[in-house]
Amino acid sequence: TEELNRVNPGNKDAYLFRDVVYWREFQKEHDEFTEALRGEHVEVILLEDLLDLSEKKIASRLPNLVYTRDICTVTKLGAIPLKMTYQARYPEPILVKKAMQRLGIPIAMEITPPGLVEGGDFVYLDDETLLMGFGTRTNEFGLNMIKEKLMGETIKEFVAVPLPSFRVHLDGALMVMSKDLALFHKASLDIFPSYLYRDGGVELVFLEDYFKEKGVELLYADDSEVRMFGTNIVGLGGGKCVSYEWNERIISELEERGFDVIRIPGSQLSIGGGGPHCMTCPILRSV
């Protein structure tokens, strides 16, 4: 909580926060989130518990660390500490690399300059198909580093999705809920064609058409829903997922399709600029 008290009206933009947060409520909401995960038999590891005293001192001055999705991605080859775009988040991948090593997870690769990659730009359609946003936080250099590392190793199909300047990460506009359903913000994803890499070549395809050709139903999110992290839902497997409680229409649509949606409060969590998907860095999936 000490790190949250560092955010004030004068530095909130530098810290990438929408506004100043009330730290007690922020902590309470995050506790409810982690308890919801544990209630579904998800093992929750807090980054702080993997740091030594000197590292904890640094972490106590990094308010964005709660949004762990962006700083690391874990693949079948091992963990990939990422490379952040803004100074406020530069130190975070260094801490998460140490944490992964203490968990015994190999480091598959590291992103080197001029590459920039943030984890909110990773969305998997299935185990062998990765969609990756670029243009705002992830750049083309970083995207190509990931593509070259994973293609032919763990990924057979790679879709590079160019994002407009108003879209921070891909997971703010697209979320694959199952092999048959995805949440989709057309205004973010229908401006430019995407680049589909497979079978040694590249094709241009609009993402909406790509999903329809795959037989994936698209549940469209509107601008206000996306603004409030309506697509930023974290799946737990088995048709269960976690969403902010105010995401009423999308929750209703998901429940009509058989999903079990766990609702959490987020009036303070969302001020930092993230949703449930942003606050998790999956390490091992058993579902």
Task: Describe, in plain words, how this protein is organized in 3D.
It is a single chain. The two termini are 32 Å apart. The protein has a single domain, classed as L-arginine/glycine Amidinotransferase, Chain A. The mean pLDDT is 97. With 287 residues, the protein is α/β, with parallel strands linked by helices. The protein has helices at 23-39, 53-59, 92-102, 140-150, 186-189, 207-213, 223-227, 248-256, and strands spanning 72-75, 78-81, 122-126, 129-134, 157-162, 174-178, 181-184, 194-198, 201-205, 217-220, 234-237, 240-244, 260-264. The strands form 4 sheets. A 5-stranded mixed sheet has the order 3-4-5-8-9. A 3-stranded mixed sheet has the order 6-7-10, with helices on one face. A 3-stranded mixed sheet has the order 11-12-13, with helices on both faces.
